[in-house]
Amino acid sequence: MFKSEHFGRAFWVDVNNDFRSCPLFNNNEPDLDHIDYVSEWTDLEGVDLNKLFNIHRIELFNKTDNGGLLQNSDFNLTEDVYKEVKKCYNNDNLEDNYSYIDSLLTAGI
After folding, report:
1. Statement: residue 83 has pLDDT above 70
2. Measured between alpha carbons, how far is residue 51 from residues 6, 13, 63 in Å?
3. What is the pLDDT of residue 29?
4. Sign of the dihedral through C-alpha 95, 56, 63, 78
5. Res. 26: pLDDT tops 80
6. CA–CA separation, 102 vs 65, rounded Å?
7. Predicted pLDDT of residue 98
8. Mean pLDDT on 97-108
9. How many C-beta atoms lie closer than 10 Å to residue 104's C-beta?
10. Which residues are registered as beta bridge partners of 21?
11. DSSP per-residue string spanning 40-107
12. Distance between CA atoms of 12 and 108, rounded to whole angstroms?
């Protein structure tokens, strides 16, 4: 599960590989009574799709390689997840990719 301070939501990939989310309470715990499918979002105005897709990549890695057990947030990515997200980018220009990922992490994905 990825807890995003930017979106104020928790994100994960479920057993059917659907990208799911729910709001976060003020204490940063997920409100599991209000789960939705990200694919059903209709108002994308102002939504930073780059950040959303990066979270989706992280959660796909989390599900496939870690059984969905990792708890990540905008400012608290595990080193293994960080390395795997780096692999998702263009291998021809790794230096630019690493700079881009580092800037995302500094900005809180």
Report:
1. no
2. 9, 16, 18
3. 92
4. positive
5. yes
6. 22
7. 53
8. 54
9. 16
10. 11, 36
11. G----TT--HHHHHHHHHHHHHHHHHHTT---EETT---HHHHHHHHHTS-GGGHHHHHHHHHHHHHH
12. 17
End-to-end CA distance of the chain: 15
**In the sheet that 9-13 helps form, which strands lie side by side, from edge to edge?**
36-37, 19-23, 9-13, 2-4, 72-73
Q: In whole angstroms, how far apart are CA 40 and each of 20, 59, 73, 90?
A: 10, 18, 23, 29
Instruction: Write the pLDDT tens digit of every residue in 35-65.
Output: 999 999 999 999 989 889 888 988 888 787 7
Report the relative pairing of strands 19-23 and 2-4 from DSSP bridges: unpaired
Identify the bridge partners of residue 37 per DSSP, sorted by sequence position: 20
Average pLDDT over the chain reads: 77
